[in-house]
Design brief:
Elements: H1 3-19, H2 30-48, H3 52-78, H4 81-84
Helix pairs in contact: 1-2, 1-3, 2-3
Length: about 90
Amino acid sequence: MENVEKYICDKVSAYADEVLDGIDPQKVQVSFQLEKLKPCMEELSKELGLSIEDVFIKYMDAASERSVDSEKKFQSTMGHMDKYGDFMQFEQY
């Protein structure tokens, strides 16, 4: 991840934690969520000399990369449950 992408992701994520606090992303339309994030993205657009669309794309790329990294870390920590089978199937003694 490039430094600019990381910077954008950090800024937008921190802003989202403030303005989207208490909002269930599964129940609230994406357009509403994006509208809430627009002021932060506009500020970053001006600061970095990028279009707001480029800021959004860089944010989504970085957020996706972070999500994949988190999943890899989780899998390496917890292991693959399907590799070992269902732990509920062990016999009770």
